[in-house]
Amino acid sequence: MDTDIKVTINLNKIVEERIKKMSAYRDFAEKAIVGELISSSEIDAIAVKSRSYINLNDTYDAIDKLICEQLNIRESTIEDMVLGERRNNFKKLD
């Protein structure tokens, strides 16, 4: 049984929804009237380009924080990431 949690992102759908939301505060009326607003192929093109703009850093930070909370340890610092955390009671395994 697969218990992994998977997230699927439909970028085309996001582009479509963002256009709808943007139309609430941007004036697309002239383009919509003359049929120049956006085509399916243009939505595809935006979705393809958007893949290189997606930044998962906030997701990684949130997961790191949850891991630290679960393990009851302090959150990592930049110093930890650069120098590594020193372990005082490290014993070599035989």
Care to describe what's here?
- With 94 residues, the protein is an all-alpha fold.
- The protein folds into 2 domains: 7-54, no CATH class; 55-87.
- Helices cover 52% and strands 0% of the residues.
- The protein has 5 helices and no strands.
- The chain has helices at residues 11-22, 29-33, 40-50, 57-71, 78-83.
- Helix 1 (11-22) crosses helix 3.
- The longest helix is centred in the last third of the chain and has 15 residues, at 57-71.
- The chain is elongated, with a radius of gyration of 23 Å.
- The mean pLDDT is 84.
Sum this structure up briefly:
This protein has 94 residues and is mainly alpha-helical.
What's the layout of helices and strands?
Elements: H1 11-22, H2 29-33, H3 40-50, H4 57-71, H5 78-83
